[in-house]
Amino acid sequence: MPPEITELTRQIIALWRRFDWLPEWAVVALVMAVFVGAGWLAHLVVFAILRRLVKSRDLFWRGVVERARTKLRLLIILIAVGFSVTVSPLDPDPSQSVRAVILFLTILVVGWIVAGAVEMWAVVYLRKFNLESEDNLAARKHVTQTRILQRAAVIVIGIVTVALAMMTIGAVRQWGISLLASAGVVGIVAGLALQPFLKNLVAGIQIATAQPIRIDDAVVVEGEWGQVEEITSTYVVVRLWDWRRLILPLSYFIEQPFQNWTRETSRLIGAVILYVDYEAPIDRLRTELERICRASVLWDGDVMNLAVTDVTDRVAEVRCLASGRNAGVVFDLRCEIREKMLAFMRDECPEALPRDRLDLPPPLGAGA
């Protein structure tokens, strides 16, 4: 123990002997109250200094100081209580137990502060990205990486904090060692139970780095089309077109094939298939498609094409292509093209509608 603390302890004990009519618990409570009050005042002073120091700094440091206000107060009070227990005339055994509890809580609070700083960094970092913009590929990339890494970091910080805190208590540490040494089956079962969690945690890190999916990506999974709404540390929420939610583990997007329509860009090409008669005037259909696209606010002015892609024994297959800004716009554009091309063939070009032809044999006696 430092000589200054030893001298302070001697002075407190000497002062207590002058008031020997006071019970020991009252002296300990009085000393603790004095130190807690001093810690409270120290918190006010430290917080005021920190606020002044970060007033002209960026949002991250201002946010960290504001979010850590309560946690910092608790940390300073814990330190004050621990210091008061050290210098107060308390029996060694109770004093040691109280200091162990205070150390345990102090480690938890420090971990809480670090986790809060990580979350604040993620909030500040993501403020410069806008997911509502039309071309939001870069924003989706950074949001996905940041959220996954933030959650993984918070989990790691939590595990390390709890582990360090438990190591300060000898009974708990010995119990853990004895459990692992004498009950290997329990350890195996625990490892198997944690396997899905660890598997998804590793998958989350892989997704954050390789990025097969991002927030707001248009994907086709399990035969359903939807958009990635949320990526947590263990699962992905896909919002389907009819507002249902499809919940999938993170490992699914590492181990299973799926379609990502917006992997490189949010722009897409939509296809509309029409079945027309052999006598359909393809040039007129192509001209009508061009007119529809140029008049539509959904078309981005890039891709537009009409081609005969197949011929069956009854009809010809015509594929209309048009591009749009994103998956939702392209879906609406496809519907618009389909409706207007159908109306055009019905009203202006009925010969393009499929017809059945019958090859009837000549009636009997027709040549007689």
Helix content: 55-70%
Poorly predicted sequence stretches spanning 5 or more consecutive residues:
176-190
Q: How do the strands of the widest beta sheet line up side by side?
A: 4-3-2-1-5
Number of domains: 3
Major sheet description: 5 strands, antiparallel
Beta-strand share of residues: 5-15%
Shape: elongated
Assign the structural class, choosing from mainly alpha, mainly beta, alpha/beta, alpha+beta, or little secondary structure.
alpha+beta
Whole-number mean pLDDT = 79
Number of helices: 11
SSE run: HHHHHHHHEEEEHEEHEEH
C-alpha end-to-end distance: 132 Å
What's the Cα radius of gyration?
A: 36 Å
**What is the number of E strands?**
8
Question: Any chance you could write out the topology, listing elements then pairs?
Answer:
Layout lengths: L2 H16 L5 H31 L4 H9 L1 H19 L4 H35 L10 H31 L2 H13 L1 H27 L7 E4 L2 E8 L3 E6 L4 E5 L2 H4 L3 E2 L7 E9 L5 H14 L8 E8 L4 E9 L2 H21 L21
Helix pairs in contact: 2-3, 2-4, 3-5, 4-5, 5-6, 6-8, 10-11
Structure in words:
This protein is of the alpha+beta class. It has three domains: 3-128; 143-154 and 164-265, SH3 type barrels; 268-352, 2-Layer Sandwich (Alpha-Beta Plaits). The protein is 60% helix and 14% strand. The chain contains eleven helices and eight strands. The protein has helices at 3-18, 24-54, 59-67, 69-87, 92-126, 137-167, 170-182, 184-210, 252-255, 282-295, 327-347; strands spanning 218-221, 224-231, 235-240, 245-249, 259-260, 268-276, 304-311, 316-324. It has a five-stranded antiparallel sheet with strand order 4-3-2-1-5. Strand 7 and strand 8 (316-324) form a beta hairpin. The radius of gyration is 36 Å and the shape is elongated.
